[in-house]
Amino acid sequence: MSRTTSSWTSLSRKAARALSNRLREYGRGGSDGFTLANIPRADIALHFSDPPSKLYQLQQWLPIFEAGPRPTIVVTRTIETYDALAGATSLPVLLVPTFEDLMALYDTANFRCVVYVNNGWSNFQSLAYQEAVHIHVNHGESDKICMVSNQAKAYDRVFVAGRAAVERHRAALAWFDESRLVPVGRPQLDLEITPPVFPHSGPTITYAPTWEGEDEANNYTSIDRYGMALIAAALAQPGARVLYKPHPRIVTSTTPAIRQAHERITEAIHQAGAPHASLPRADMLGVIQVTDLLISDVSSVSLDHLYLRPESPILLCDRRSDHTRLVDDTPVARSATTIDATTIDNARAIIGSTLAEDRLRDARTEMRQYYFGDPSPGDSTHRFWSAIDRAIDDHDAAVRNLQRTRVTGEVS
To answer: What CATH class is the domain 3-185+383-400?
Structure first.
């Protein structure tokens, strides 16, 4: 055996020992711990590198993979997230803290596909593994600028909902190979979610603001600018029920204006009493099922509502009060009524008139087709798994033709 091969073998064994030790340590032993010798067989690694504050991005995908036809393992990179997932999924969960550990796991487990729900910085480490196909699925369909990150170029395939997403990438990315984009719909919208509240005799108005984003370019929230005025206007509607469903990161926000607005709205809902409700932990897809009028921001919420309840109108908030830009960047705005600095003072009248007469229903039907196509229930899930199968098969065939791969053990 050559000195080079011996070195590779030594490194591989060292990595395997390190991973095994860490998994025993961080897995707290027992049935929750894993070693390289007893990793469950799986075709797919669902890679998630972020802290618990971003777990909502992963959690929406767990039911899809739990019910899917291919065995899947969740790969986490922090002890906090690993602990937070305890008991939260039927999928096996591994803690793999370092790059050395990750490569030892991948080399041993032989995953055929690695799936990413966001663009966490340590995704770049995982992408080093060449023998699996790397697929980005994101965590919702929306017109936020972060949905068309330049990081999309790193993945073998990028699964998107439909034509709107393809055109969004075309408008935002230079030197991007569109053949990587695979329209699959949105499988989460096939799930049967129980609404968190009972039906109401009058209209239900839901205010569901997004969070403030990582930077100003990704700040689409209305809560600090229009939130209280919108809640007051909604509560003033005769016979209406008002539901408040904030983005999970509004609830944990450390931005003073966001926290203050959230607290004021929560208190206003509390003071108003039943049937009004604040639902910070509810599943938004369940809330949508009982919503007759949605007030939201540029986010996946407005598009999920468009798909699930096309008969129910949308008020779309624009914190920048630039209607021309809003319509250009956010096509769904053409089928919604805009709330911005020029209209917020008339919010009570706008809500009332929208409930009384829905003039944009046909426009929403057309827009639903643009974003999602015209799938029947279950179609998105079928398209998703068919696309996974094709990507795995095509990549496996390509890997067999490679002339150089990672050396991880002895060669004869």
So the answer is: alpha beta
